Amino acid sequence: MGSRFNIRVYGLWIREGRVLVNEEDIRGKLITKFPGGGLELGEGIADCLQREWMEELGLPITVGDLLYINDFYQKSAYDDSQIISVYYLVSADPHIAWRNLNPNERTYWMPLAGIDPAVFTLPIDRVVALRLRAGAE
User: Fold this and answer.
1) What is the CATH number of the domain that holds 75?
2) Predicted structure pTM score
């Protein structure tokens, strides 16, 4: 088992039958995931999600309903920590232009109909993608 917990928080912005997805180069490997990141000590979960979206996309978001928390053990691919991932529905003003603030990232809309969980790198994201696909069918 891991030596510590690593809490990750992700936002799902679903709009017009699509969900926003992020590709990021992490340690030389291209990762396809939902936008979000790691909770910092002393930070609330919603605050973390809002900060991550501002850091990644320069986009202020409204945090909505809790969608999913993984209920199985997942070891980090990068260290000895245990991953706990929290997923919220989020929304944003569609008239505000978002942009990738990190040159190692690319963000795009993925259609929910026929969403392929295998596209996602992170195992917990695959579970969420399966849930999204089931909801879109």
Assistant:
1) 3.90.79.10
2) 0.92
